[in-house]
Amino acid sequence: xxxxxxxxxxxxxxxxxxxxxxxxxxxxxxxxxxxxxxxxxxxxxxxxxxxxxxxxxxxxxxxxxxxxxxxxxxxxxxxxxxxxxxxxxxxxxxxxxxxx
Length: 100
Ligand code: SF4
Prior knowledge:
Elements: H1 3-11, H2 27-30, H3 38-53, H4 58-68, H5 79-84
Iron/sulfur cluster (SF4) binds at residues 21-23, 30, 51-52, 55, 57-58, 61, 74-76.
């Protein structure tokens, strides 16, 4: 799916579930800073996973991220976990670029 197709699909998607998101205001926890080290990523994602664990939007969030090939941590799932589950990133880099 081309990036423009993904973008147009997202515009047409019902995203009202985001209003109930437990991660509101915690963006830094769900998206990595530049040049994040693996150990720091593990710690950040563990904390994000805890937040997702009690979020009422968890299932819809995970489905949304999978469908829209999102980057970052969504619905209790990291980019690597989504990628391994068959929901590929549009432009994978690093290790994920070598997984077919
Ligand atoms: S499941 Fe996690 S990432 Fe998704 S809305 Fe809830 S807290 Fe945010």
